Amino acid sequence: MHHVSWPDFYFARHGETNWNRERRYQGSRDIPLNETGQKQADSNGVLLRFLLEEAGADPTAFNWYASPLSRARETIERMRAAFDIALPEVIYDERLVEISFGKFEGLLHEEIARERNEALAPGQRDASYWHFRPDEGENYEDVAQRLLDFATGLADHSIIVAHGGVLRVLRHLVEGADRAEVLNWEAPQGVIAHFEGRAMTLHAAQKTW
User: Fold this and answer.
1) Cβ-proximal residues to 68 (8 Å cutoff; 6+ apart), any chain
2) Between 70-80 and 35-55, two packed helices, what is the crossing angle to 10 degrees?
3) I want to staple 190 with a disulfide (CB 3.0 to 4.6 A). Which of 21, 35, 40, 104 is the partner?
4) Strand order in 63-66's β-sheet?
5) 150 has which bridge partners?
6) Pick from 34, 30, 19: which is nearest to 107 by CA?
7) What is the pLDDT of residues 35-75, one digit of tens each?
8) CATH class of this structure's domain 9-204
9) Domain extents in the chain
10) Is 94 helix (H, G, I), strand (E, B) or coil?
11) pTM for the full predicted model
């Protein structure tokens, strides 16, 4: 489907924000973590440390990547605080920024679904939504092209912290999951996805929030 050699890597979505909780279209707007999101990030750090120890993997040998938006920055910083050794610097890459919802950003999912039938919330989308682009925004194919470009420099032993839309697209690109399936999938927070052998395994952090 896509002629990219995907390595094994770990992925975490950023923790919760108030806009996530309110079910607002967030996209590329720089919205910070709330208290729950901070706790999710802390727990994810403990989980990641456990997963790497269990795999016999050296965290200093990994490349650490994150979206430059502050909710991803704070998430990866809190995750790295679980390690008691010096880690490589984080590479903040614009290609990992969340899909832009353009003029929809800041509006509630239910408002958009009521006023603009073409902008459906997860659970109501079909595969054609992959190419739906809001005014001044992106579609999921735009994000896919960003990620395919990012993948050209991605190697084994990588850790990525980014966004729910990015994780949806990665499931399609790496696993080959159906577009309609990933578009309607609520990408979870407080978990770590391990992509290995073109398959994704989700690991849940201990809930402390």
Assistant:
1) 92, 93, 94, 96, 97
2) 50
3) 40
4) 90-92, 63-66, 158-162, 9-13, 191-196, 199-204
5) none
6) 19
7) 999 999 999 999 999 999 999 999 999 999 999 999 999 99
8) alpha beta
9) 9-204
10) helix
11) 0.95
